[in-house]
Fold this sequence. Notes:
A: two-stranded antiparallel sheet, globular, B: 4 strands
Amino acid sequence: MHGLDALTLARAQFGFTVSFHIIFPAFSIGLASYLMVLEGLWLRTGKPVYLDLFRYWVKIFSIGFAMGVVSGLVMSYEFGTNWAGFAERAGPVVGPIMGYEVLTAFFLEAGFLGVMLFGMGRVGRGLHFFATCMVAFGTLLSAFWILSVNSWMQTPQGYTIAPDGRFLPADWWAILFNPSFFVRFPHMVLASYLSVAFVVGAVGAWHLLRRQAGPHRLASRTMFSMAMWMAAIVAPAQIFMGDLHGLNTLKYQPAKIAAMEGDWDTEPDAPELLFGIPDMQAHKTFDAIGIPFLGSILLTHHLSGKVPGLDQFPPEDRPNASILFWSFRGMVAIGFAMAGLGLWSLYERYRRRLYLNPWLLRTAVAMGPAGFVAVLCGWITTEVGRQPYTVYGLLRTADSVSPIGAPGVRDSLIAFVIVYGIVFGSGLLFILRMMSRPPEPGETGPAEYEPIRTAGIVPGPATADPAHEHEVATP
Amino acid sequence: MSDATWLPVVWAALLAFGVVAYVLLDGFDLGVGILFAIEHKKAERDIMVNSIAPMWDGNETWLVLGGGGLFAVFPLAYGVFMPAMYPTILAMLMGLIFRGVAFEFRFRARRRPGRAAWDTAFFLGSFVAAFAQGLTLGGLVQGIRHEGGRYAGGWWDWLNAFTVLCGVAVVLGYALLGACWLIWRTEGPLQARVRRYAALLGAVVLGLIGMVSLWTPFLDPQFFDRWFTFPKSLVTFAVPGLILLLTWKFYRALGQKRHRTPFFCVVGWFLLCFAGLGISFWPLMIPPDITIWDAAAPPASQKFLLVGASVLVPIILIYTGYSYWVFRGKVGAETHYH
Lengths: 475, 338
Ligand code: HDD
Ligand code: HEM
Ligand code: HEM
């Protein structure tokens, strides 16, 4: 790997570790809310199927969450180890917001996670539900703060710059609620919900495909139906949010849009390219196939709206169009595919064949991981599009890096690749294995699955029977 | 007094509190992992892990607070310290990754070898994380070279006899905390065994504390000055005095088979060591010459977070306390199933 400088390696390392990280939070944010809904439904209706589903997914949640925590821990130290320049200069603005994330979100999640995972038989039902809500709320808070930070890096405002180059906070309100935050936060939350809905839908569909009848039938159908409602409602909402996001980016980061569109010259009535190979050296997009005017309509909502081209920006300020063009298209394609599946499910529901059409079920299984792919595509679009800056227009990535030699960064990158491969590979395997077993009536929770029991409080293993459970719960 | 004078002092105190909380809390659960080295039976290991499973995540969050807090309120210290400690921080993170997932994975592995592998990961992860923290501490105490607000030392500055001594001290110190935690939370033969480990580890750790304490004043004339000139030396000798008092109490409690007291005696040792460090450091953030005022973020940043912290930290302590209370009592007493 000689020839790669510390900057490139540090970027590769950050991109690699953060890409792993984001998968797990997206999973946790969506799943925590889903668990909250399941438990709420169980408390309201008393139907055991919701409790079974809660217990089934909470075990999977605990694994995903653990991986989210350890991969996030790496992130919070990486700002110092690899991006000391960024830490010193942007730290006064970015640091306190991330401090708030720790104080409000991480502690909240961690504090109530134990009760949520192991506390069913130890606290009353109301308190247990409260703990689940706090965990779900914590994940959303976490997203709130970190997306505020990230959005500030994309569309900075509310700061002044000190003589030594440090960003000084001037107006916290303006910093937190910067222009791109309002589109980025809802887009990300919807993305998490969709990602989890497609996983849940795929698991339900898979078990229905394997065996229509059996004790798991009700649970699998419930999962599949819930997930398809999400696809039908949330996917179109996500497309709408994505459109808003694009308009926002056009306003604040036109170079990013130009790169996403593979557009080299500024033109009114720009086409929307469906295919093309942007070439950063030749300043051209080869083999472009496009629909005339569509680009202008999509981006400006006018037939002849002016869309900026990359030639408007000096070469050293251009983000990499070859990546952006495709990452953006990947995300959009998945978004439409999700909405399409949602529509299809409505139709089959109307025909009362929702659980029976094998092609619908098969498609749902195939689209299980789609949400995560879209999330990664979206983040790559966002982050690569911000290049060559870490704080857009103000602080270059080259000035953000730590004074560390390339060999150190390289070796640690290799170590990360190996460790993440082993650890998250095994985690994925465990999760898949758990999903391959259908949820069943009388599903056990983690507390019973693993022998954790304390003397004096609980007489015996809590059972799935809700009536019985209530007795044990109130000592 | 201007904001720029008192805010860094308050924040240094708060961060110190965060670090102490981390060391004590994650200290005992890392210690439990380290004790896997001498406890091999599956049933006992399950009990050990179960005694910490509901709280380890909360404990580790204090470490995030340490890193995040330093970033937020002392960005210069963060920017100098992290690159200097690059290898040890990364080693610690890798250790924590393996150990954090092993909590879940060791229960999921179906076959013996898989299980054994994740048990080893749990032990090694705990050990490596603890050792790396010790090295990091040693590296900080011995001082960090910097120029113009950036790290200016070499790749291996963190590795020498002193830092290794600190590493060993932290590993065994955590093991001792873990043993005392298990005395508190378990019973029967396991409890009897960890009580013996605690007795032995107690003596070794005391010796190590003594060695590190004697070595530190010779690293830097400033430290020496603080410890050995009258009248400051009066305070200086109070610390070892209190340690001896606690030692007496610790061994008496072990002898009387107390359940909780040994843990709190060891907590006392740790607190006194911190007090000692505080005496050496004040008002430095990073020896030999970065003070807390040099490293501080602008008052606007520190104030913004302080408003939140003063409300949130007490709330955090309350619900963390509640969660510990929910899981109080002996663990694994009648785990006869499985
Ligand atoms: C399930 C996930 C998912 C889906 C289906 C979509 N997105 Fe998305 N998108 C994300 C997940 C995501 C994300 C991971 O959440 C991003 C990355 C950063 C962010 O704020 O959200 C994102 C960013 C993002 C950006 C911002 C780039 C920037 O920073 O300037 C735009 C313009 C869009 N999206 C547009 C769309 C459109 C038009 C979609 C519809 C078809 C769409 N997204 C579907
Ligand atoms: C979690 C979802 C995220 C993903 C998947 C992601 C992805 C990436 C990728 C792929 C890069 C490399 C870009 C390049 O080098 O061309 C990168 C860089 C970076 N990102 Fe993000 N990012 C995420 C969130 C964040 C957040 C929340 C922040 C800020 C708090 C952030 C700050 C940075 C910084 C500082 C860099 C390094 C400088 C750079 O190369 O841009 N990222 N990220
Ligand atoms: C580069 C930026 C990021 C950093 C430094 C970071 C840091 C962290 C840390 C330290 C943790 C562990 C917390 C604990 O101990 O409980 C964590 C977990 C988490 N992070 Fe990130 N994170 C980043 C990006 C993101 C993004 C972009 C999101 C969401 C949109 C996010 C959402 C979460 C959530 C919900 C958790 C809880 C654990 C889990 O859900 O698995 N993080 N993060």
